[in-house]
Amino acid sequence: MADIGTDHAYLPVWCLQNSKAQSAVAADINPKPLSNARKTVEEYGLEDKINLRLSDGLKNIAPDEAQEIVVAGMGGNQIADMIFETPWLRDESKHLVLQPMTHFEDVRRSLCENGFVIESEQTTAEGERLYLVISARFADKTCFYPDWYYYAGELPHGNRETDALFLKKVIARLQKRADAIKESDNKESNKLFKIIEEIENECRKNL
Ligand SMILES: C[S@@+](CC[C@H](N)C(=O)[O-])C[C@H]1O[C@@H](n2cnc3c(N)ncnc32)[C@H](O)[C@@H]1O
Known about the structure:
Elements: E1 2-4, H1 10-17, E2 24-28, H2 31-43, E3 50-54, E4 68-75, H3 76-84, E5 95-102, H4 104-113, E6 116-126, E7 129-138, H5 147-152, H6 161-180, H7 186-205
Parallel strand pairs: 1-2, 1-4, 2-3, 4-5
Antiparallel strand pairs: 5-7, 6-7
């Protein structure tokens, strides 16, 4: 596996310890996190299994180094850019695990409109904080969905408590933006209100 933006390399260590991966590349763009990662790897004695790499996105990762590619804890637009700067990800055998902190809609839209399929989504919580994880893979299948889907994804049909909480957060954010631009850009504001309505309709279908 490759963990892009690994920081302390906790995830590659966990994957190796739990037999989820046989080897890992722990990559980060900044030297300081990479030195944190080195400390963790040494602490767990995994120097022969985890390769530390200074890399901007996947630029210094070779295609044969990873089947599972994780990008977690970054902005959605940054994650989308990284995927599209890496042609070797357009391969059905490569599995993406993406955990954007913001701009979830950009990640879904870019994946779907560029030949990737979203295989599943999962939300989770740590304390008050909610997280979304998207599992995706290249399928050479371009799909254009209505806007609401890019904001809500699979969550209206999810049955976890955190799915509903996450959607509530998405709707609150849309509502805030729609209210803020109501005077300056009425057309865009109405578009956002319509998206909220469509997400709510989709949730009702699940009741
Ligand atoms: C908030 S931390 C996330 C750490 C870990 N992945 C997690 O989810 O807990 C973001 C990390 O991504 C790294 N990063 C930011 N931009 C990057 C890029 N373009 N390529 C690789 N790493 C990057 C940062 O240096 C930082 O260590």
